[in-house]
Amino acid sequence: MGKFNQVLCTIVLTISVACSLRTSIVAPLTAPINEDDLLVKPLEPPVEDVEEPLKGRYLEPPFEHGWDVFTGELAENIAREAPRNEAIDEPVERRLEKNDIVPNYKDLPVGSTVTFGGYSGTSLCAKTNRTAPVNGHEKCPLTTPWQVLWPTPKVPVGTEDCYTDDIRVYQTGDKLNSAPGLEVRMGGCPGSETNIWKGGYDWRYGGIRPQSNPDESLYTEVKEYIEKLNVNGTKRVVINAISGGTTSSYAFIMSQPLEWRKKNIAAWTPQVPVFGGTIASMGAFFKGWPRGNLLQCMSRISAIFTPSVYWFWPRGGEGKYHWNKTETIVFTPTKNYTAFELYEMTSKMCPKCGEMLKLEQEDLLNKFEAPGIDTYAFYGYGIPTVSGYKTKVDLNFSAFAEDICTPTQAMDAVLNPEWFGDGVGTLRSTGRAGAWVEEQKAKGAVLMNFGYKGMRHEACTSFPACAVDYKCVMNKIRDQPHSGC
Length: 485
Prior knowledge:
The protein is of the alpha/beta class and 485 residues long. It contains 15 helices and 17 strands.
């Protein structure tokens, strides 16, 4: 999950428990929280983000475009490349949820691998050409050349207001777009307009994509490129995804008809997914998240107008993969808030933020339909993960208004051991693909949902037990020798 996904900072604790590989179903997670039993600790400054794109000679971060394509020999090497540590020194407790669909990869050759990196693996380039200042900030230049917008530059980026004017997103009704007069492209900033790559995905947007700029819409560019790779229908692709790229790739996949998915995609391999949202992402809304030259006060102003922050908020519902009406997420002196009341809470603090939350929450992640293509997911659990927040003051506009740079009220992070996931997403979010076992079977598609106790929020290949399974799956998809998957 990781750019403002990087606000999902974690407490990392590696846990290894001796246990043989087994097939099991994650226990229901619907028990109500007893506030007295919770672990509460002061909310500390964020640590460096733990998310890392897939490591190895062939996939080095950052991904230039947000998604990248690996063809021919490169794709084969990704499948066969040995994990960082081939030997597993200690047995690791694992979970596996699967259906009994047997795939056929022998008669349908697989070609390229299309990888959606995490938010921290993307980059944005921008230039401005305005006729009037944005937000009344007269000191900001109306015209600027192409320059790095994300990752946050480690060199001066002008005045703080100017940067936050551009990094945030603007909402009009049910439409979202960048600041007026701002042109955004994926990739580096070579200084030549003809050299700017015009595809990929903009991490700032969640399920709602800008309509005024097709190059930011995600779906069209990727679809067309995959069709070119799948020459005459004989070279289907594998879609690999990491962290925030898991939800962005899911959004892309589900934007296409099922017939198109089956024709063009051999398999989807999401790693460390955040399918059910994360509570930790709410920290950016409450307190901000400083990074590089973006100080804490300005980081909050940016975060509260970043749609993907709200896209990753917890989803209310019934069952073990949702937060239900008995589970408090935010504790305050006079009212406790569940996932069903986050719009009410957010609107009290920042009415515009409430509207953005509402827009992003009522989308495909709520329905969470099975993709209908072979899916191999890899997730971690058992790592201390933020499961709520507790504040000594009530949440209202006067204390947390949109123009307040850094709220000074004390806020604690709440840890509930029953919810421990990979340090970023709680278990019901990281393991949510398990909800697809029967629906995938009905659609004739494989579902294997691998879970590893002690695997934190990083690429599967960084955790030896997961790396072995991932390598096996990739060899299986490419009809190479494999066993155990």
